[in-house]
Amino acid sequence: MRFTRWPSWFTYKRRKEAQNHIADEEAESVIADKLSEAQCVATVAQYLLGQGWQLVSPTELGAQIWARLQGKGLAAAAATQPIQHEVWQLYGAILHDHCQQNHDQAWTELTTWLQRQTPRLVNSPSEQEEAVQESVIALQRQLQEAPLNAPRAFFAFALQVLRRMVVDLHRRRTAVMRGGGNDLSLEEMGEESDNWEEQVAAPPEEGQSVEMHVANKEIRQQLQTFFRRHLPTELQWQVAEAHFLDGLSPVEIAALMGKPAHEIRLVKARIVQKLQNLAELDRQQLLAILGQVEANPRHE
Amino acid sequence: MSKSFIAPWQQLQTLLLNPLPLVRTRFLCEQCQEALPLFITDELARQPVDTLYPDVARHLDECPYCLAEYEALSQLTELALYG
């Protein structure tokens, strides 16, 4: 979906509506075919079969997922992705626990799954095999040392390990080809950082209410004009306005625009970098406008 | 990482007044990258990650190194989940 003009529901008065967009999408389809338990279990079974995952029966996992989703009144046609997310997290936790207990089948499933992901990262079959083997060893070591705090993120964690391993192997090979022996692994690079200071924006004081949006019409107009003058693309204007003026999060903006959340987060990061690198005069102008927001929290 | 609830316009103000010099962010980079699998898992499930993990979200705004990691892992995870 591409907006030529920012829709009216992006004003803060409809913020609530925008925040509930995901729920609304689901609610709209309730009138259509409502998801049944049998359909839920069938979708789970199909996903497990496709992935080759057998540590838990589809009926058992399907019942668990049904218990979590049935209250949402999902339409059958719109339920596939929410069910996949549930399987991904629940089975991730199951696989994590089984791997930690050195369950052979679990390690076989994890290895096979990693083998399927590796061609997305590296072309050579020998490098793929090496990356998978090293990743499995790293994961075994990690789980022996400490389980994950959030086992439901196990699949994403395993992918992170795999990706780092591919980068690491590539660096090692490049170093050998250059004749150098001083290859540096990602882990070693990370060990340099002991005493770096951290700056975190201070939370509002207790009892202080913070408006997530910019309510004052004139100030909104000034910020809109500023963004349009200094940001290069229409998408950046839209994201800047939705985020900084309407207070929507990247996830909410992504849902409204029908884009993946990571795309919006990248756009937002580019906006921040662009605004941080403004000429001093422009930076002062933006700060002056933002100072007005603080001084006029609720005027319209 | 601690939670801090700050309006986006206030975040922008803070980012302009106190940009994080890259050299000082290495410690936060480690924390951020440690949190990325959970951040991405929840983001794909349409959870409010900017509220759940505000420090990670802010760090991604400012650190190109972690942002590149986030982008790559996010795409890879999405392909693995739906592929």
What does this structure look like?
Chain A is mainly α and 300 residues long. Chain A has two domains: 22-178, no CATH class; 217-295, Orthogonal Bundle (Arc Repressor Mutant, subunit A), CATH 1.10.10. Helix content of chain A is 64%, strand content 0%. In chain A, helix 10 (217-230) packs antiparallel against helix 11 (234-245). Chain B has one domain. Chain B is built from five helices and no strands. In chain B, helix 2 crosses helix 4 (54-62), helix 2 (26-44) runs parallel beside helix 5 (64-82) and helix 4 (54-62) crosses helix 5 (64-82). The chains are: A mainly alpha (300), B mainly alpha (83). Chains A and B meet through helix 5, helix 8, helix 11, helix 12 and helix 13 of A and helix 1, helix 2, helix 3, helix 4 and helix 5 of B.
What secondary-structure arrangement, pairings included, does this model have?
The complex is a heterodimer of chains A (300) and B (83).
Chain A: H1 15-19, H2 21-28, H3 37-51, H4 58-69, H5 80-100, H6 104-117, H7 125-145, H8 154-177, H9 186-190, H10 217-230, H11 234-245, H12 250-257, H13 261-276, H14 280-295
Chain B: H1 8-17, H2 26-44, H3 49-52, H4 54-62, H5 64-82
Helix pairs in contact in B: 2-4, 2-5, 4-5
List keywords for this structure.
heterodimer; A: 300 residues; mainly alpha; Arc Repressor Mutant, subunit A; 2 domains; flat; B: 83 residues; 73% helix
Shape of chain B: globular
Q: Give the strand tally of chain B.
A: 0
Helix content of chain B: over 70%
Major beta-sheet overview of chain A? none
What's this model, at a glance?
The complex is a heterodimer of chains A (300) and B (83). Helices cover 64% and strands 0% of the residues of chain A.
